[in-house]
Amino acid sequence: MFDTSPQLDCAGRILRLDVPRVMGIVNVTPDSFADGGEHATVDAAIAHGLKLVEEGADVLDVGGESTRPGADDVSVEEELNRVVPVIEALAKRVPIPISIDTSKPEVMSAAVAAGAGMINDVYALRREGALDVAAELGVPVVLMHMQGEPRTMQANPQYDDVVADVHRFLAERIFAAEMAGIVKKNIVVDPGFGFGKNAQHNLQLLAQLRRLTELGVPVLAGLSRKKTIGELTGRDDPHDRVFGSVAAHLIAAQNGATILRVHDVAATVDALKVWNGVAAMPAPRAE
Ligand SMILES: Nc1nc2ncc(COP(=O)(O)OP(=O)(O)O)nc2c(=O)[nH]1
Q1: What predicted TM-score, i.e. pTM, was given to this entire model?
Q2: Cβ(244)–Cβ(202) below 8 Å
Q3: Across the strands, what pairs with 259?
Q4: Among 25, 32, 28, 77, which residue's Cα sits nearest to residue 52?
Q5: Is the ipTM of this complex over 0.95?
Q6: Ligand 1 atom 22: the closest Cα is on which residue?
Q7: What tens digit of pLDDT does each residue of 228-270 get?
Q8: Closest to 60 in 3D by CA, of 259, 275, 253, 274
Q9: Catalytic residue among 226, 227, 273, 285
């Protein structure tokens, strides 16, 4: 019997989506909100990536520019200097797919040449040239919703209906990607928790995440250590938001997400082992 569950071919490295998978975050940045500066050097980032693989990550997401509210822009050259050596080294040393977290077409190309097999773009390929470059590279792409720009997006986000608005945006970006030549089986969508959303918006999106699975592509959820988790738990320090983040990602998995983007891989992997244990149980017999 052939396994018909969805999977992503990330430049030859397969990311199976038969069960929720864990994307480990490797921020090669001095200013990321949750772990800024902790893995900012090439060597530290490589070591961190190897640690996340040890902990059970199914894919690594390497990023060289913080997208937190108010973050400074990073030049193409600086971003390349941060991520390319890390991707090159990790691609040689780990068997799992590596994704590049960038919105710059030049960085997408260089990262894939260095061994990345997936593009994760918080701008959903809206930057000049990004759609064409992503189509040319032919690797899976994550299209994420953001309202506004990182610098200003949290000022006062407004929606008529955040779930419907995000759903509509992602449907439009899927269409744009397909028109550019990206095949639908290579597309993942992401509601963009915290990107132009307040806590209520984030919780509505999490509660109704299954609506996004109607788009017919895998859903990625990234709530790890984010402000909404802090507000709900009262944990001001992002490092103290592990338990809340794990709870949020289990709910995302329960609501249809099959890629979870996390800082705390070991904790999330253990939580998913419990979740998978229950999910594997036979459905209740009809009365
Ligand atoms: N697809 C996707 N990509 C993302 N990239 C960065 C961040 C922000 O989190 P982090 O990388 O931890 O922080 P920073 O952007 O400050 O480096 N969140 C997402 C997300 O929710 N979805």
Answers
A1: 0.96
A2: no
A3: 21, 220
A4: 25
A5: yes
A6: 222
A7: 999 999 999 999 999 999 999 999 999 999 999 999 999 999 9
A8: 259
A9: 226
